[in-house]
Amino acid sequence: MLHNTMDSTSRHNFSMQKKYIKNMTIADAKAHFAAIGEKSYRAEQLFNWLYEINVDSFDAMTNFSKTLRSRLDDEFALSALSLEERAISNDGTEKYLFRTHDGHFIESVLIRRDGSDDGRLTICISSQVGCAMGCRFCATARIGFKRNLETAEILDQICQVRRTSGVKNDNIVFMGMGEPFLNYDNVMRAAEIMNYSFGFHISVRRITISTCGLLEGIERYIDEKRPFNLAISLNDTIPERRARLMPVEKRNPIEDIAKLLAHTFPSSRNRVTLEYVMRADNIAKEDAIRLKKLFRHGKIKINLIKLNPGVPGFEPPTDKAIEDFRKNLEIMNVPITLRKSFGEDIDAACGQLSGRRYDSHVHISQEQLPMHSDK
Which entry of 84, 85, 107, 275 is annotated as an active-site residue? Predict the structure, then answer.
């Protein structure tokens, strides 16, 4: 079910550019209020209005004077994105199509039940317009890379999904469009703001940042002692075969990533999640053995995802083959989750986000056909 949400008036207003207020950290906000003669506690009040109460107008900030509200409205834009469409799946999953100020499109997904034991409400968010990584199994790769999203554009996805759906999520995954580690600073700033106690107040254990495997980004992430969950899209155990599907393998070998995780990943941290999309040709017993050998010293857990059917050149595995692979992986003695896909009927499942408005003018070669992924 699709819902168009944007009229011509809102398009006009959205095109009038101001600074995005959601680009500010709490330190930025305190400095701004001090510069205009306001008390520093106004910053925490502001963030409570922006993220906890999630207002859509400065006029709604009733503990600010009319003069202050007007001044903020003159200088800042409250929303960084406009909501174009909302699609609702038969399983309750919701996909949101957003338009940026410069006419690009990104998508976000609300997963009302993700198969976890604690029944998390998850929002899957995008970090870039398009993606430069060129993975064959990813629909986002079709449109190529357009630009990084600003911090405000990342955060506004959550604000608008919450406001439109009427539910308050408690889990965030950076598994939408784009490679988060190629937009590292904006992604980390956004993740920090999500964790503010006077804003979204989402636990660092409920914020997951996923990468296709960029060594430099993973090293920086570990060196900076970032507290958020880390997920790596693995998807194969043979480097040559993985490189054909994921070009990132050529300069960022998964073997080097495994060594890095074994030697430098803090023991106090959550386990690194290995995302593994199962195809008919990558879940043999030998694949399980290679996986164990690669990560025998790493603190990991494994997320198994079945390939979406119907893509030429790739075959999904049988249920029996999946169960055999899962049993073969038990020798690793690590947590293993078989993850169900949600939102397939509205192209909201893993690997299907493409900014639907691009479809009409993007040429898709045989090599770029999407398979399935977390990206």
Answer: 107
